[in-house]
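Notes, p. 3: input format for complexes.
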Amino acid sequence: MIPLRNEADLQLLRKSGKILAKVMLGLQELIAPGVATKEIDAAAQRLTLKEGALCAFKGYKGYPASVCVSINEEIVHGIPGERVIRQGDILSLDLGVNYKGYFTDAAITIPIGKITPSNQKLIDVTKAALFEGIKQAKIGSHLSDISHSIQEYAEINGFSVVRQFVGHGIGKNLHEEPEIPNFGLPGAGPLLKSGMVLAIEPMINTGTWEAEFLNNGWTAVTKDRLPSAHFEHTLAITDKGPEILTL
Ligand code: MF3
Ligand code: CO
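Output follows (247 residues plus cobalt (II) ion):
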């Protein structure tokens, strides 16, 4: 069963999402060529704690850092470390926040200085694909209407959709039911109801959709090593339509 949240729960989820959005902005301010990704990790921890919340990824299934930093061909779960950000990179930040036991999750991909037109298009299409999915997150839609609209938008624009990772329900845990693939036929899966809270997160590739893992056991990269982008928001389904919590 997909959990339904009441107004009291939604209030705390709103607060969690606001904290996440604020920390994300703080991280973006410090990102520049020459910065090591471990500095982003330290800032994620510092800024989140300052807001009275915890980084939800730290220690989750053994994940060793506070934030995921995935660069260029890295799709998701890049582990921050000594790597230095360079002009021309595209960099994905994925952050989960736990505020008083209420979880939100969001990701963005940002350009580092001047990037190629192809990478700019990849970023623009991935972000727009997320919003195509969010448009379907309304009472009366089927879950797979979200999946289908993301896939259709990405593929019409010449990109491919990662299959191995999916969006998810969220709220009192980082990952709850249901799984939300970024591909599939419309009109399938559960009907969406007011009070459901979902993390929708398209991961879109320039070339093949296929992924493989680096030796650290975490970081997923594209099989052809062409760039990948990732955007994610946590949202609540309400009587008035989707309410994005992580803006
Ligand atoms: N946004 C990703 C997800 O929902 C990030 C999880 S990273 C992990 O799966 F480290 F916590 F696993
Ligand atoms: Co997520």
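The longest strand covers residues 90-99.
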